Amino acid sequence: MLKSHFDISQRSEAEEEEEVEEEEEAVRSESSVSEETKKVTVLKTKPTIAERKLNRSEVSVRQSLLGKTADGDGYAFLKATCTGMRLTDIRAIASFKHIQFVDVSDNFLTTEALQVVTKIPFLVLIHADKNQLESAYLKKCKYLQVIIMNNNSISSVHDVYHPELSTLEVGYNEIEKIDFRDRMPTLRCLDFRHNRISDISKLNFPNLDSLYLAGNKITSLVGIESLINLRILHVRNNPIKLLNGFNADQTKLQYINLRNCKVTTMTQVKKLQCLPALEIIVLKGCPFMGGSGEEGNEVEEDDSELRIEVLAALPRLKRLNKGIFTPEERQDTFNI
């Protein structure tokens, strides 16, 4: 989903992310068995996909968002939405020179077939969820700011480079490393949820604002200290026990989601005392809060004494899990 760093679709901030992810997890848990069966069947049968070309008239009727053209010559529709059409060939879209936002999700496009969008001179956003992409690579685009490629078969982002790229969203793929060949100092939001990432020790994104890594294999947050402009850290559902890696230079970090991680003691929670801007922390499902560190086994209600202990350790907090701290709770911290 498109993050809040791009104005065309002001979607989520931290709280909305939690709600959306809870809904996604519920749906996935209900259908996990059938989905696994489906995957096995697909791997065995590999059905042939019929060629399906997009034509110009189909693009014309799927345009929206009337606005001023990038070259300032007039007004045109700036967005094309060609989703769920079983497309394998979208070359027709390249003739719409004023398009800036392209959504071709839920089709049968390969990485090669998607390259045609790089011929659109003022392309700002490409949304290509649920296709057959094996790489996030696109030929360099001068104005491209947002890439969304969730639910594909992408295994690497090493060759991704665009001089203005600010948001890269590649959740539910097969990526093992957050590793780019070329530095992109413009990056503000990275979403690698539900991939195969285990190590974040070499992160180097000094201007990064938001990092979403839920559902990976991360055991340590060492390396996070290099992200001095980070504001949101979402690492839910990772086997993280120790909260090492934070430091006082991270003066903007306001929100940390550790739901269903393996944090067990107050000693670890106190390691967050160095963060001067921290306002919200999610620890629901962690052993420290009475959970097991596994999805679906969370304790519904927060222990009131634990809430007071956390607030006493981190007095600048405004919220723990979904509960905003009350004046009464703040007063109770003086009795500890």
From TrEMBL:
<feature type="compositionally biased region" description="Acidic residues">
    <location>
        <begin position="14"/>
        <end position="25"/>
    </location>
</feature>
<dbReference type="InterPro" id="IPR050836">
    <property type="entry name" value="SDS22/Internalin_LRR"/>
</dbReference>
<feature type="region of interest" description="Disordered">
    <location>
        <begin position="1"/>
        <end position="39"/>
    </location>
</feature>
<feature type="compositionally biased region" description="Basic and acidic residues">
    <location>
        <begin position="1"/>
        <end position="13"/>
    </location>
</feature>
<dbReference type="InterPro" id="IPR025875">
    <property type="entry name" value="Leu-rich_rpt_4"/>
</dbReference>
<dbReference type="Pfam" id="PF12799">
    <property type="entry name" value="LRR_4"/>
</dbReference>
<dbReference type="InterPro" id="IPR001611">
    <property type="entry name" value="Leu-rich_rpt"/>
</dbReference>
<dbReference type="InterPro" id="IPR032675">
    <property type="entry name" value="LRR_dom_sf"/>
</dbReference>
<keyword id="KW-0433">Leucine-rich repeat</keyword>
<dbReference type="Pfam" id="PF13516">
    <property type="entry name" value="LRR_6"/>
</dbReference>
<keyword id="KW-0677">Repeat</keyword>
<feature type="compositionally biased region" description="Low complexity">
    <location>
        <begin position="29"/>
        <end position="39"/>
    </location>
</feature>
<protein>
    <submittedName>
        <fullName>Leucine-rich repeat-containing protein 23</fullName>
    </submittedName>
</protein>
